């Protein structure tokens, strides 16, 4: 990705699409959590597929990556509609999400993705927010342990904070409001198609990091401006990316 022309073209295309004139200062970066900050997707895959199978629902590993970013309740309704032709009852939703959470806690190592710290350090002068579909109670503690003095509850959007989760733009629009910035002054770092769609729908320049099983086209087709192979590649490209952003008119 260390290609200035490709980066400049992506920035120019974004600004042209949104009718932006001149350089827009970068003031904030909104990060998805699972698969961007934490290497937690394998645990999500295992816990979702096992919990779904226990109640007779069909769910593949690829499904977990496609559905990632949505609220748990939304995903459960999709599974019930696909398998049984109806939405889940409230009792079914509560049971399955609690069971999935129980399994996730057992399987998740809490490990962060390699070089995510370098990415966070590279934007330390900006507002840094987390925008996640997760509603797990341990979320803020988990962030504080892994990334001390980096994220705050006031600048975090979770699945409990929104009425419509990803792929609706609401989570990222809420992130912009909390940060007090406009979409043209912001980047999003995402790993999931539904998250990319949400960020693009909010009008934000979206960087996708493909840390999962899906092809790059799954992210590009949803509107990602650039796709990176890993957080390491993003960290290596970040100085050039910021330079191009400030220079591109």
Question: What tags apply to this protein structure?
Answer:
249 residues, alpha/beta, 2 domains, 11 helices, 10% strand, globular, HAD_sf, HAD-like_SPP, PGP-like_dom2
Q: In words, what does this structure look like?
A:
GO terms for molecular function: sugar-phosphatase activity. This is HAD hydrolase, family IA, variant 3. Keywords: Hydrolase. InterPro entries: HAD-like_sf (IPR036412), HAD-like_SPP (IPR051806), HAD_sf (IPR023214), PGP-like_dom2 (IPR023198). Helix 1 packs across helix 11, helix 2 (41-54) crosses helix 5 and helix 4 (72-84) packs across helix 5. It is built from 11 helices and 6 strands. A 6-stranded parallel β-sheet has the order 3-2-1-4-5-6. The mean pLDDT is 94. The chain folds into 2 domains: 4-40 and 112-247, HAD superfamily/HAD-like (Rossmann fold, 3-Layer(aba) Sandwich), CATH 3.40.50; 41-107, Orthogonal Bundle (DNA polymerase, domain 1), CATH 1.10.150. 49% of the residues lie in helices and 10% in strands. Strand 4, helix 9 and strand 5 form a beta-alpha-beta unit. It has helices at residues 4-17, 41-54, 61-67, 72-84, 90-107, 116-122, 139-146, 170-179, 193-201, 216-220, 231-247, and strands spanning 28-31, 127-131, 156-157, 186-190, 205-209, 226-228. The radius of gyration is 18 Å and the shape is globular. With 249 residues, it is α/β, with parallel strands linked by helices.
């Amino acid at each position: 990705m260390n290609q200035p022309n490709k980066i400049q073209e992506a920035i120019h295309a974004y600004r042209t699409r949104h009718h932006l004139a001149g350089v827009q200062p970068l003031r904030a970066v909104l990060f998805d959590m699972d698969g961007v900050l934490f290497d937690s997707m394998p645990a999500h895959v295992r816990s979702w597929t096992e919990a779904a199978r226990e109640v007779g629902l069909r769910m593949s590993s690829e499904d977990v990556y496609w559905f990632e970013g949505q609220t748990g309740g939304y995903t459960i309704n999709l599974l019930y509609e696909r398998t049984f032709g109806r939405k889940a009852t409230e009792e079914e939703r509560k049971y399955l999400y609690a069971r999935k959470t129980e399994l996730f806690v057992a399987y998740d190592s809490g490990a962060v993705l390699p070089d995510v710290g370098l990415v966070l350090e590279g934007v330390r002068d900006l507002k840094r927010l987390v925008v996640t579909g997760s509603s797990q109670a341990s979320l803020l503690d988990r962030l504080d342990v892994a990334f001390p003095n980096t994220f705050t509850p006031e600048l975090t959007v979770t699945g409990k904070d929104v009425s419509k989760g990803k792929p609706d733009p609401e989570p990222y629009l809420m992130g912009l409001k909390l940060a007090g910035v406009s979409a043209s002054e912001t980047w999003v770092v995402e790993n999931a198609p539904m998250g990319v769609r949400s960020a693009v729908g909010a009008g934000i320049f979206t960087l996708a990091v493909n840390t999962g099983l899906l092809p790059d086209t799954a992210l590009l087709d949803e509107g990602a401006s650039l796709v990176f192979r890993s957080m390491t590649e993003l960290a290596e490209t970040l100085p050039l990316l910021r330079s191009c952003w400030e220079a591109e008119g």
